[in-house]
Amino acid sequence: MKTRLTLKVNGETRDVVVPVQKTLLEVLREDLNLTGTKHGCELGECGTCTVLVDGEPVLSCLVLPVEVQGREIKTVEGMAEGGRLHPLQQAFAELGAAQCGYCTPGILLTAEALLEDNATPSRDEVKEALAGNLCRCTGYTKILDAVELAALRMRRTHA
Question: In Å, how far from its chain's centre is CA 153?
Fold first, then answer.
């Protein structure tokens, strides 16, 4: 059985007709071609598929698209504005915080939500916010450094 959905993704309204059992992760990747959101464990344990829904991190492998109709969905493709990287993306690139990059989209979006709520997080608060996002390549130090650098830069531009 298929259903017609209207989703607002990265500021654009998108209409799709999809099987009712498809997850938001599958619809984003397979139907909307937004492949920045990655398949991970598909059990809600790794954070790889994290997207923002109304500014809050959500594991897209556990959400049905019908549940998020009328809400703002943001994927990693929606982070850059006007051809300019988001400060988090810039800091990750500069500090080498992304190794293989598979977990990076989920981490970037989770960090964006954190910095939206808390412009001056402590390292422990960054660690806590990112605790649900697993990375198999790094020791997390460069990731934490990049989030802190982006937070500093974002505070300077808003001051």
Answer: 20
Q: Which one, of 1, 29, 36, lies nearest residue 17 by Cα?
A: 1
User: Average pLDDT of 125-137?
Assistant: 96
The rounded distance, in Å, linking the Cα atoms of 87 and 22 is: 33
Condensed to tens digits (0 to 9), the pLDDT of residues 1-48 reads: 999 999 999 999 999 999 999 999 999 999 999 999 999 999 999 999
Cα separation, 51 vs 44, whole angstroms:
12
CA nearest neighbour of 22 among 10, 30, 14: 30
What are residue 56's DSSP bridge partners?
53
Q: Which two tokens stand for residue 24?
A: 């938001």
Neighbours of 158 (CB within 10 A): 7
Torsions phi, psi for 13 (to 5 deg):
-85, 130
Do the Cβ atoms of 62 and 23 come closer than 8 Å? Answer: yes
